[in-house]
């Protein structure tokens, strides 16, 4: 789960981390009132969407000349004009794709007098099994470009969970950022606070770009992105409450209500599978047979009729789907129960595209019998390869 910049900053501030003062706003009036509550005279009006690159982004509805989604405003009137310009319009950035994202929230913050911009992020490094801090003196810009062109300017510092964050980690961060004196001390303190926040909140990624040194010699978090391990969200109801579903794919939101792991993809063949590993293998074998999966969908171990029906509806809501491949291993759930679920669901949703079903496991013969006697045009398959070949052939034939 991801947060908006203002939400992430408010969380970080609870750990003592320095952020510029700011006020979120859902309307032009709130933006103006927010600006009035700030010291001024410089303000920054920032579009709140779950994507970076806002500063260099373009609004679809405004001309090429219009400014992006992060704007410096020199007066309350400027704040008012920028807020009116952005709210309700669609911001396209390098991270949103061509469709862009509608701006429904703003963050009005203090304008900061920047001396230098740095980069600092934290993530769970799977290779070392540790939390890593990734830092660079090249902040503010696209870090992927820095990593590509000048990898030597990016430093990674990993923290052993057994010993936790130690003062030497903080010194390594300050050294990598080439900071000295008071700023080095500030960087050491900040790294410890960030590590504490990251681990206490079960984050899986925290990126600060830029971290800035102000002309007054302070270190401030100017922009941040934070994402959380969804399997640990139950431990943080306050964080879970910050979820903004309008930023997510509507079908993925619907799927999460039924505890289905669904991810929309670009292909033509809808997949319904139990188990993430089997789902990955199913997607691979569809590609091997020359077509592409329209989604990843893991119905989980305890798939029942309600879940199967919800899964069918979600798959079919995607207009790109030209056929469905069901690949289920009946382990905990018996194949005959699953077959009944598939038949009931297919009837309920009035299935209009080819459906190939491969069942394996407990009571498989009974399951196959139920599918065969259903009166529906369900194509049975014997194994994974057979299922993939059949669904591709069916879809090509129907085209
Ligand atoms: P994004 O990464 O989505 O473009 P940022 O918040 O990083 O958004 O803003 C882009 C740039 O705008 C920053 O690198 C910084 O130079 C400038 N900026 C952002 N917030 C402020 C602020 N409060 N004061 C001054 N400049 C800012
Ligand atoms: Mg940024």
Outline the structure in words.
With 399 residues, the protein is of the alpha+beta class. It has 3 domains: 21-110, ATP-grasp fold, A domain (Dna Ligase, domain 1); 114-240, ATP-grasp fold, B domain (D-amino Acid Aminotransferase, Chain A, domain 1); 250-398, Rossmann fold (3-Layer(aba) Sandwich). Helix content is 35%, strand content 26%. It has 13 helices and 19 strands. The strands form 5 sheets. Strands 8, 9, 10, 11, 12 and 13 form a 6-stranded antiparallel β-sheet that branches. It has a 4-stranded antiparallel β-sheet with strand order 1-7-2-4, with helices on one face. A hairpin with a 4-residue loop joins strand 11 (203-214) and strand 12. Helix 2 (28-36) packs antiparallel against helix 3 (76-86), helix 5 (167-176) packs across helix 6 and helix 11 (335-348) packs parallel to helix 12 (364-372). The chain is elongated and about 80 Å long. The model has no long low-confidence stretch (mean pLDDT 93). ATP binds at residues 46, 53-55, 112, 117. Pfam families: ATP-grasp_2, Ligase_CoA. InterPro entries: ATP-grasp, ATP-grasp_succ-CoA_synth-type, ATP_grasp_subdomain_1, SUCC_ACL_C, Succ_CoA_ligase-like_bsu, Succinyl-CoA_synth-like.
Quick overview of this protein structure:
Its EC number is 6.2.1.5. 35% of the residues lie in helices and 26% in strands. The protein contains 13 helices and 19 strands.
């Amino acid at each position: 789960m991801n947060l908006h910049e203002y939400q992430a900053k408010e969380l970080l501030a609870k750990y003592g981390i320095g952020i510029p003062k700011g006020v979120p706003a859902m309307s032009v009036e709130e933006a103006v009132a927010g600006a009035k509550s700030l010291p001024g005279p410089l303000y920054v009006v920032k579009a709140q969407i779950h994507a970076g690159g806002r500063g260099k982004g373009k609004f679809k509805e405004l001309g090429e000349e219009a400014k992006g989604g992060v704007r410096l405003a020199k007066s309350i009137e400027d704040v008012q004009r920028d807020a009116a310009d952005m709210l309700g319009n669609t911001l396209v950035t390098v991270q949103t794709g061509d469709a862009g994202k509608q701006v429904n929230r703003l963050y009005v913050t203090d304008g900061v007098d920047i001396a230098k911009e740095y980069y600092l992020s934290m993530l769970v490094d799977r290779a070392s099994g540790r939390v890593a801090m990734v830092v660079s003196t090249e902040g503010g810009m696209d870090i992927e470009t820095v990593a590509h062109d000048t990898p030597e300017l990016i430093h990674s510092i990993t923290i052993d969970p057994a010993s936790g964050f130690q003062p030497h980690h903080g010194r390594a961060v300050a050294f990598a950022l080439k900071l000295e004196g008071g700023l080095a001390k500030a960087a050491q303190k900040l790294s410890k606070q960030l590590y504490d926040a990251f681990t206490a909140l079960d984050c899986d990624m925290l990126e600060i770009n830029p971290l800035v040194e102000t002309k007054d010699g302070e270190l401030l978090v100017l922009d941040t992105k934070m994402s959380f391990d969804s399997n640990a969200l139950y431990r943080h109801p306050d964080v879970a409450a910050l979820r903004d579903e309008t930023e997510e794919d509507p079908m993925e939101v619907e799927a999460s209500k039924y505890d289905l792991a669904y991810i929309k993809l670009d292909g033509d063949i809808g997949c319904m599978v139990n188990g993430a590993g089997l789902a990955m293998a199913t997607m691979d074998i569809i590609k091997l047979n020359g077509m592409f999966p329209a989604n990843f969908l893991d119905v989980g171990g305890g798939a029942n009729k309600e879940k199967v029906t919800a899964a069918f509806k979600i798959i079919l809501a995607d207009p790109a789907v030209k056929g469905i491949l069901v690949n289920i291993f009946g382990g905990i759930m018996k194949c005959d129960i699953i077959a009944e679920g598939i038949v009931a669901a297919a009837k309920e949703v009035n299935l209009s595209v080819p459906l190939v079903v491969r069942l394996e496991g407990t009571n498989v013969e009974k399951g196959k019998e139920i599918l065969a006697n259903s009166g529906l045009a369900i194509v049975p398959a014997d194994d994974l390869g057979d299922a993939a070949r059949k669904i591709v052939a069916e879809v090509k034939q129907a085209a």
